[in-house]
Amino acid sequence: MGAIIEVNGLVKRYKSGFEALKGVNLTINEGEIIALLGPNGAGKTTLISSICGITNPTSGIVSVGGFDINAEYRKTRAMIGLVPQELNLEHFEKVIATVRFSRGLFGKPADEAHIEKILRQLSLWDKRNAKIGELSGGMKRRVLIAKALAHEPRVLFLDEPTAGVDVELRKDMWAVVQDLKASGVTIILTTHYIEEAEEVADRIGVINGGQILLVQDKAELMQQLGQKQMQIDLAEPLASDKLPEALGHYNLSVTDDLSALIYTYDINAERTGITTLLGDLQAAGFVLRDIQTKQSSLEEIFVGLVADQDARTANAGDAA
Hints:
Keywords: ATP-binding, Hydrolase, Nucleotide-binding, Transport. This protein is of the alpha/beta class and 320 residues long.
């Protein structure tokens, strides 16, 4: 499928001079799930708000479904469902009335079957006549999602949707997300739960300091940026964490309990060096008990990318 959202040169600069977005370019394809990862203050919410037409960018162009977000705001906004971080709901309103009202705001005709379907999907049907103030934080977040889906949007933004939600509710939410994707809805989510992005997203975007560091297919990202670690368990713990000079070029690390060695290598390298390492360990008198490997997680990749950018920014500031 083609692109449903195009962001070109998006800048958001406040009067103080602070730039929340620094020339962001982003293409989101119809029907995909894309996860935006970034630390607090990275620009995730500002980017979402700009695409939704809630925040006015300083410069740049955003189009949704081929329509400019500023010139044709009503058309673009009608295509978008937004689940914000804040639990901004009417305390004394009933659940079903809240969802009905949200549908009406977009000029959609009444459709009780659709409202019931959404509420059942989100396990809210039994709570349909309950007042919002009687619900738990997790259930209130479900109501936000129901509101966002009431007008049948083509694009759904989920800004930290599982914050404060228990594990069971979180599983239900992601089941709904997968159903929506199957029906053709495009989903953009921000999350601090990196394992969720790793599980549900088709592509991963990393944003920090108002800049997109990368947007890439999840599997490709794991393959290209991921490293593997080999843990070599020893038959007997080492006497100290100092290794023979003959092993120095392998950049080995020793576990805190001195019972194992850790060897990190690039999975795409022509030679991993494992065979040579094992031979040199044997020659140095090491007796091995077990060997196991693991690939870097998305969290480790993410932390590494952000750390690298922060280091470059700091170095640039020092040079200036």
